[in-house]
Amino acid sequence: MIQLYTSLYTLAAFTADRVKREQKGATAVEYGLMVGLIAVAIIVTVGLLGGRLDTLFRNVLNALPGGAAPAAG
Q1: pLDDT at res. 26
Q2: Residues 31-34: contacts with CB within 8 Å, 24+ apart?
Q3: Distance, C-alpha 11 to centroid of its chain
Q4: What is the pLDDT of residue 39?
Q5: Are 25 and 36 contacting, i.e. CB atoms less than 8 angstroms apart?
Q6: Secondary structure of the chain as H, E, C letters
Q7: What is the rounded average pLDDT for all residues in the chain?
Q8: Whole-angstrom Cα distance, residue 63 to residue 50?
């Protein structure tokens, strides 16, 4: 009887360990998806606003005392 209990306990512990591992894997996938979506959002934002930001920074640089824009290239 003790051997049956030990076998069932071992099986339950093994199953619980596998379930925990699957949840950790799912969490890693979720974090990977979030990082990917954030990267896409950054790329799209920079693509859409890149020209405006460049103009804004050049205007600020030119407005500073003695601030001439550096030569391009």
Answers
A1: 67
A2: none
A3: 36
A4: 94
A5: no
A6: CHHHHHHHHHHHHHHHHHHHHHHHHHHHHHHHHHHHHHHHHHHHHHHHHHHHHHHHHHHHHHHCCCCCCCCCC
A7: 78
A8: 20
